[in-house]
Amino acid sequence: MGLLDSLLQRDGRKFIKRKDSDAGEAGRALEELRGSIYNELRTSEGAKRQQQRFCGPVVAMTFNFLVSVGIILTNKFVMGQVGFNFPIFLTLIHYSVAWILLALFKALSLLPVSPPSKTTPFSSLFALGVVMSFATGLANTSLKHNSVGFYQMIKIAVTPTIVLAEFILFSKTISCKKVLALVVVSAGVAVATVTDLEFNLFGACIAIAWIVPSAINKILWSNLQQHANWTALALMWKTTPVTVFFLLALMPWLDPPGVLLFKWNINNSSTILISALLGFLLQWSGALALGATSATSHVVLGQFKTCVILLGGYVLFNSDPGFVSICGAVTALCGMTVYTSLNLQKSLEGPSKQLPKQNVSLPKPKTTTEGGGTDSIAVTDVTNTTNIV
């Protein structure tokens, strides 16, 4: 019995040590995994990879499309039923609420880390904040003083402005097929909205002044996210204070008098707050879409929204925009389909251009030492090329 007890005790100690060893290895593996995830989220490169992983082009553009439709209906209710006819002040409320939410995310350590300050000069962030205040404020003012049709007609001019600005700033060109597709889209939207072109001189001047800031705003958002490791929320956190400041400066010039006489109550305040929350989601979803695609694609998405709303009203609510407008909307949708397919084809051709590098036939080994050394180098180069691809 003594021998049996000693064997059992020895095996028991080995079992306990093995269990302790396994538990220690599992714990170390868990700590390493936790540390890697923490490091991934606490660096700008890691946060950018997580944004690209969970919010690709389809998700970002769908998110932006849904929020855009929601805020159009909400702002229409705010301007019409509530009677809050102060577009710049409404935009200021939107960005102020967004700033408060971003500060809350910052306090809860939910805000992604910004890239180092030396990689992006402060002048770029300041310029983006200024341009964003003019783009958003002038857009809401234009929508107040012009008809929806004239507003959409002016939006068509943003597309060639973006193409020209990207060529001047970044020497970026697009193919002739894409140019033709964009021409078809713009012509279709023009035909779809040509029946409603009411405007006045002040509204027309505001709309024309809005074109350049809108184009530059989209280009800067897209460029900083795609080439400087910025995430949407981090970039919003840096630029929103500048936007709020310049909206305060624009309000006395563009808003009508009487903002202090507006009667606030629970219903009005809750409606404007809902509009502000949707404004934050619109800014976030727009930034995600610009980071995942391009400035031109984001403009095409806005025109797609216009055509879908027009056709949806015709199909669901028996509205009659006219046969010409319906044909224009259908033509624009066809052009958008071609443009999207060209973008997908380009994205698929990128990896395929590197495929021939993997199919390099390996030379037969030679019997001499010098030839063998050469063959060994050739094999190493092909292996490295394959790994890189």
UniProtKB/TrEMBL annotation:
Chain segments annotated as transmembrane:
54-74, 86-105, 125-143, 149-170, 179-195, 201-220, 232-251, 271-292, 299-317, 323-344
Its protein name is: Sugar phosphate transporter domain-containing protein
Q: Which residues form the Sugar phosphate transporter domain?
A: 62-339
**Entries under PANTHER family matching the protein:** SOLUTE CARRIER FAMILY 35
* Keyword line: Membrane, Transmembrane, Transmembrane helix
A Pfam family reported for this protein in Swiss-Prot or TrEMBL? TPT
Subcellular localization, as worded in the UniProt entry: Membrane
Which InterPro entries does the record match to this protein? Answer: EmrE-like (IPR037185), Sugar_P_trans_dom (IPR004853), TPT_transporter (IPR050186)
One Gene Ontology CC term in the entry? membrane
Renumbered residue ranges of the record's region Disordered = 350-376
**Topologically, how does it sit relative to the membrane?**
Multi-pass membrane protein
